[in-house]
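Input set for joint prediction.
Command: fold jointly, output tokens.
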Amino acid sequence: MIESWIDLARGPLFRISLGILVLGLAYRFGVVLVQVVAAWRRAGDRRLPTGAVAAATLGWLLPKRLLRARPLYSVASFSFHVGIILVPLFLVGHVALLRGYLPRDWPRLDPLLADVLTLVCVVALGSLLIGRTMSPTARALSKTQDVAIVAMLLLLVLSGFFASHPMLSPLGARTMLLVHMLVGNLALVLTPMTKIVHCVLYPLTQLVFELGWHFPAETGEHVAVALNKEGEPV
Amino acid sequence: MAIECSYYTEPVDTTDLPRRFLEAFAAILAHSNYAPVLDAACRISTRCGRCASTCPVYQASDDPRDIPCKRTELLLQVYRRYFTPGGALKARLGKAFELDERHINTMAEEFYRCTACRRCKLECPMGIDHGLITHLGRWILGEVAIVPKALRVATREQLDGKTRNTSAIPAAALIDTCEFLEEDCADTLGLKIKFPIDQENQEYVFFPAVSDYLLEPDTLTGNAAVMTATGGSWTIGTHYFDGINYGLFYSDRMLHRIVRMEAEEVRRLKAEKVLIGECGHASRSAKAFIRTFCGGDKAPPVVNCMEYALDMVRQGKLRLKKGAIDARVTYHDPCNVARSGWIIEQPREILRHICTEYVDMTPKGKENYCCGGGGGTVSIDEIREFRTGIGGKTKADQLRRTDATIVVAPCANCKKQLREVCEDHGLEHAQVVGLHDLILKAIEPPDSMRVEQQSEQEDEARAGEMEKER
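tokens >
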């Protein structure tokens, strides 16, 4: 019974989820790209501080920049991101699952390194979850989605670890594998629809906010016309 | 329900207010670049709280409503509900947020607790610019007449009034003031300076914060001394002479109209460039938006007076006495010129030369802390307790650590705020001045600028003429 569920999860469900992920991310990225070009074309001043925008975009990829504020949170966040990017893409089992979609010489993680990254990711996600629920500032800011996504990813990573280490698993390895696959598929589907979409939008976000300050030359006049306020005193 | 804020507004018509707010929001989205900004903020905000850790207002108030991300969410809630398909769908399912007067009142209060210093942007890994979203929120509120009275009244005088400036100074009074400053400088400092009025075909037209004509004579005299000493080609226009632009704080429509008046005055006087005095927001609004609203590459270039002064020092045209200011001096970076990295080192280079003891605050430059009066809040006298007690607390702590007796703040707004911060935080020993106030004390004037020299030359010329007559 469980085997047929596993087959379903890694077969049709996975392909559908992967399709939603790829198409969804392409759509989101495409929409923002079109918006960026349109905003730039409308701008009264089209000169952009491209160096500063690029420096800000690249700077945040390095831990040095992150560690300047909220160091504990930043360490957890950085560690989690390293694991959540490398393990899904380069773990031997995942590469096998993606056979046909990836080039033949796609690199693979050493299993021991993958385990270390996974465990670091578990600790990081656990810390983030505690931070989200315990810190008054984080509680004031957080929505259900913020806690639910961290919890989902924690379940995903933990179930993956136990599935590949049956001796340590509190449940059967096949059950853990099924949980891992179902949660993984859910994560793929949710990626374009939730804040995880920043994984593809990140390269454009600094530019979007910079462009926000580049107003169209006639913005004031057009708004005045739209609101019937032409010639109206201040 | 009436709109009740901690600042005064002119009477607000609350009839159908949510509908009118949404109409204004829709009109602005249709004719601006804000929609992609809000879309991006909705999708990528991870609400990580880094902005909270760097906001001086939240650090001092510990009030969650001051967390930049949380304040941004107030507007995003409205945007999601009324301007996205997801919001429309939720509304059909009957689970949606509905905009009401209470929410508008909350925005009205909280958008003016922010000093628009944009320090939080530096700490957001996604680059979310909460200052930009607050700026937009204030504009929408402004279109339904929810604006601090102080800002609106001043802007009304500037755009629709007889004097066309925020301090309501008639042109005749401006001319009198300039003549008085010239005479005063000659009498007290022995320096002959000029404030050229309405001269055509000069390189620069000068726009200080107009309040400087009333409140900062030393800064203005310093500006004129630098221009006179360096043989600068400049003038002050009597048709329009105010650098202040409160549009930057509450309405892009007003921002647009004000910078166009600056560009028109430059055109009228057949000048080439805009020279802005010591004022952060005046400098930023001119530098960033004259190009935007006045013809892109054809718009007159904008130069800040501190850039000009340093350029002249480097060219050897402006000579300043080394160590002329014998005091412990620190420098406050106005957010509007420092956050982008535009003006950071220029004034410091001058100060290190003319002061015997210069100390920097930490952090400084791009990462400086706001004085607490940014975003136009300095003009709102009724919120002084919040402005200096909460908004200015971090800056007061910074100032105290420097132990400086002179604080240089090259901005009319920062100066007013810092003087009040010093008063309210027991820092009365610190004197808040402009950079040009100190330049005036340190200047080594060319002989042509000395009154005695001038008088001697005039006497010699007169004697020569008399001899000829004989």
